[in-house]
Amino acid sequence: MSTPNPQTLLFNAAFVDELYENYLADPTQVSGEWRAYFEKLQQEEKLSKPEVPHAPIQARYYDYKPSRSSGAGCDQESLFGFAHKQAAVLRLINAYRFRGHQLADIDPLKLNAIEPLEDLTPAFYGLTDADMNTVFDTGSLYGKNRATLKEIIALLQKTYCRSIGAEYMHITDTKQKRWLQERLEGTLATPSYVSEEKKRILDKLTAAQGIEDYMHTQYVGQKRFSLEGGESLIPMLDELIQHAGANGMKEIVLGMAHRGRLNVLINIMGKRPKDLFSEFEGKIKENHQGSGDVKYHQGFSSEVMTPGGYVHLALAFNPSHLEIINPVVEGSVRARQERRGDKERNQVLPILIHGDAAFAGQGVVMETLNLAETRGYGTGGTVHIVINNQIGFTTSDPFEARSTMYCTDVAKMVQTPIFHVNGDDPEAVVFVTRLALDFRLVFKKDVVIDMVCYRRHGHNEADEPAATQPVMYQKISKHTKVQSLYAQQLIKEGLIGVEEGEMLLQQYRADLKTKEVVSRPVSLDFQFSVNWKPYLGTKWDEVAKTSISKELLQDLMRRANTIPEGFKLNRSVEKIVDARRKMGVGELPFDWGAAEVLAYAALVEEGHPVRLSGQDCGRGTFAHRHVVLHERDTGESYLPLRNLSEKQANFLVINSLLSEEAVLGFEFGYSSSDPETLVIWEAQFGDFANGAQVVIDQFISSSESKWQRLCGLTMLLPHGYDGQGPEHSSARLERYLQLCAEDNIQVCVPSTPAQNFHLLRRQAIRPYRKPLIIMSPKSLLRHKLAVSSMEEFTDGSFQPVLDEADKSIAPEKVRRLLFCSGKVYYDLLEARTEHNIKDIAIIRLEQLYPHPKKEIAEIVARYPNAKSRVWVQEEPRNQGAWWFMRAHMDVNLQEFEGGRIEYAGRPSSASPAVGYLYLHRQQLQEFLADALALNSEAKRVAV
Questions:
Q1: Which UniProt keywords apply (predicted)?
Q2: Which among 462, 464, 521 has a CA at the least distance from the CA of 305?
Q3: Complete domains list, the chain, with CATH
């Protein structure tokens, strides 16, 4: 084919459009001649985005004036020249969409000069000054269909290069990009507010500055992590709340670290100023309980009126671990959405406020973002706000805090739009706030607002930032506060008087002393919240009926193992299901997996929802659970526990992503907002919880003491020494025991399927809402001795201590008592049987904390002739339960002869376990012999 004739193109625009569409999708789909033409049309720069408009390149040829002004026919060279120019214009438009944010005026301090970008200059695309007044088609640029090049560039610079820098071209969804382009380009990214809206913004800026000024003069040198430099956060949050309420939101959960928290509490949440000032003065609250926490970690709840009615606000309590609050908030939001039946995620909104260095630096940010659109964790999109101080902690410059251009680049992994905005332009801040929330409401996705500002007083008010950042803080010391800047703007616009800005500040300071609340009017009479009263003041030893009738057991086992007709199972799974059917009718004893499934079935049948999450938890890491069944040929899944009856409670099982910190934080947040659901997180191996230690330390073990927040979260941590090396033997039992105090958590090591059944049911049925840590088994899942009879489920309950189970052991003839927990019991039992020992009793502590002192004392009293008492464990001496139990057991045994307890177990070790199977077995035999006194020269009493 010859080179395309421009005149032919005029009358075959549709044909050329189709060819060009094919070329953009795959250049090999068009002939070499057309391919060469399109390549030349693009000036040898391949357009890889199909959404870039191409029809106008052809369709507007007919209107090309130079070729028609003389009255002659179309000049081929002129047409080709125009085609090149038109393509260049469209590429320039696209370049501004991709990179215009780099030229945006988003830094109020102007610390670094904005360097020009070559590919945002007309010359880069072969456009000259002579083209400035030429009329071009604007393609998909919203506004005029045709405009001069000069007008087009002005539109692009107003939209993308002023106080807002928008990043969205990394998004692959064309609808989302088109929506954002329309909202940005259609308005030139310029807000249009009436006078009352502008005055409201000034009022919020006044409040933001007013509280900081007051605290700075009244509480000199005290830490408050002020918002000064980022005051535009307050009108931003006000806009978010009001606009969310207008769009039907009923609840908002906020998570944030220190910076600006006190300001948010007073000016957004409606906390009484006098309560905050009392905290500054060190006064203890009435009805004080627990340790309490510093004022800038405190949370708060209130309800504020919006155009759509009252909206419940909850500011989450947060420790000093900054971004760790992110998954906790998401979990709390998900629980609230479930409670409301909010399947569309339109009624409860999560807002997360970050620091710039923390957003870029802390891995939990990425983990939480990665949860956003996964099953069981999605909340319909989060509004992320970065208070970008342009400095990390005390001294870190941006180049020390990250390897990326922006602190927000990590958010691109989930294709979220990112709006960088100058914190000194409060109108632009409010504009992107509404835009961001609207995007979230329409597309149910996360969105990020990066408010670039500064920090007036350093990391805290006792810090001297000029010592390490002299240039930045010279600029800050001379920089006018945003309230004054905006007041001056409104004075120029004739909206307020010359002195009105200062008068507003003075009035706010007076209100702090005289008014109960200085934010919008708030209500503390919550309309839709959890009633925690039934869970307060409960005790760990309250009895709960956890047994079920034989008839119900058999019925549940039948229904829990009923498979749809034609649903073919994997052979190994089919054997497990068949065995469970036999267990349900008493033909086989219950193993661990069957007992656990029965516990869940009984709970949901009785109206207790269950939420189970973790890596591989549907199957179980050790293939014991199988609550999710898969069709052998199609891969279709079926959950019997979701199909027991029409009136059953919900059973949700989620194979979580490969995260511990974010997922456990999420489950904590969920459980702390929903006391009625049994929330369980299972670690793939117990030591995987190491990756979530901050959640355990800062929330699970201490949230009640610090913040009076209850939580019934259950953690399943596979634990047991099976000769598999140091990495996956130990769930680090000692760490949890070290955290035990004031009955804050429960640490249990069930050794039988029935004990685990009753333990799980006890956690859901009784109103005692404390975290439960279960050292769950690995090899015991299929151990021949670790089984339970049907009667153990239909009678009895969880026993914190299990006495000697062998009836042939006469208590009066026992000379030695062995105390232990978990798998080592079966090692001891088999060794005792092998050596036909009858004067040693083995007592199992199934609950290590709260310490069952009374139960232990009662059992010890049954053995009046026992002269020695030994704690036996498989963990090394410096690990496991030994040091914790030694202190408690010595108190337990002090009234008995030879009261101190002895130790039998592995020697101290820096590693949790040995890596060689031979050494593992050798150590096992040595400490079993020590425990059973097989090496003693003393002659054993024959029985």
A1: Glycolysis, Oxidoreductase, Thiamine pyrophosphate
A2: 521
A3: 6-161 (no CATH), 195-519 (3.40.50.970), 591-628+648-794 (3.40.50.12470), 801-931 (3.40.50.11610)
